[in-house]
Amino acid sequence: MSWLADLLNKPYSSHHKVEVEKLLDELVSIGLRDDYLSERPGAGFNMQCRNIRARQIGTRLNEIGGLAMMEYAQRYVRRKAGKLGRTLAEHLEYAWVEIGDWMK
């Protein structure tokens, strides 16, 4: 999906706009600061070495808009994270395994 399609067809209602924008910005910040994956658990990462807060955000985004919302968030991370966008989007893909219908 293109950035224009994302701009025109948001997978969330206007009622959730402020919350979603805050969560998306936090998700990008987490990726840039800590990444979504770690080589070892602890210090914000679960036993599968996935960022705990990123998973909480993924769960909430799934509650708001399901798989479409999570896919939108992944594309958002890819666009907003600059040179690291592609890598972070791939890490996020694995970090969100088993949330809702994500990568079942």
How would you characterize this protein structure?
α2 crosses α3 and α3 runs antiparallel to α4. With 104 residues, this protein is mainly alpha-helical.
Question: What is the structure about, briefly put?
Answer:
With about 100 residues, the chain is mainly alpha-helical. The protein has helices at about 5-10, 15-35, 50-80, 85-95.
What are the key terms here?
mainly alpha; single chain; 104 residues
Largest sheet: none
Tell me roughly what share of residues is in helical segments.
55-70%
Strand content: under 5%
Query: What's the helix count?
Result: 4
- In terms of quaternary structure, the protein is single chain
End-to-end span in angstroms?
21 Å
Principal-axis shape: globular
Which secondary structure elements does this structure contain, and how are they paired or packed?
Layout lengths: L2 H6 L8 H17 L18 H29 L4 H11 L9
